[in-house]
Amino acid sequence: LKLESELRRAIVGDEFVLYYQPQVDIETGKIVGVEALIRWDHPEKGLISPNYFIPFAEESGLIVPIGEWVLRAACKQNKAWQNQGYPMMPISVNLSMRQFFQHNLKGKIRHVLEQTGLDPQYLELEITESMTMDVDHAIQSLLELKELGVNVSIDDFGTGYSSLYYLKKFPIDKLKIDRSFVRDIMVDPNDAAIVATIIAMTHHLNLKVIAEGVETEDQLHFLHQNRCNEVQGYWFSPPVSADELEKMLRTGI
Ligand code: G
Ligand code: G
Ligand code: NA
Ligand code: MN
Question: Per the database record, which ranges form the EAL domain (predicted)?
Answer without folding.
Answer: 1-253
